[in-house]
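Tokens for chain A. Residues wanted.
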């Protein structure tokens, strides 16, 4: 593990502890692929999902995984024909 990777893991641990104090769950994934796979496990079949146009989700592959899921309703704003 590089010093930078260790730093990220330590910071994530601190953030997750603080989230737990506020009764929220936090997750740490060292790679974008792991984060995308974890996100998919957290979305239940039948759920409706909207993203708000996050470039981070696009860059780590979550958007493409959401678009490919047939068991959820994905509100894909990039596919909208009008702003409404």
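Reply:
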């Amino acid at each position: 593990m590089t010093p930078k990777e260790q730093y990220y893991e330590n910071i994530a641990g601190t953030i997750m502890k603080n989230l737990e104090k506020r009764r929220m769950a936090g997750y740490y994934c060292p790679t974008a692929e792991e984060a995308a796979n974890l996100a998919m496990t957290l979305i239940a079949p039948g759920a409706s999902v909207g993203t708000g146009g996050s470039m981070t989700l696009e860059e780590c592959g979550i958007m493409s995984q959401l678009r490919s899921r047939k068991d959820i309703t994905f509100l894909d704003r990039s596919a909208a024909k009008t702003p409404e």
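Helices lie at 3-21, 32-42, 55-59, 62-68. The mean pLDDT is 93.
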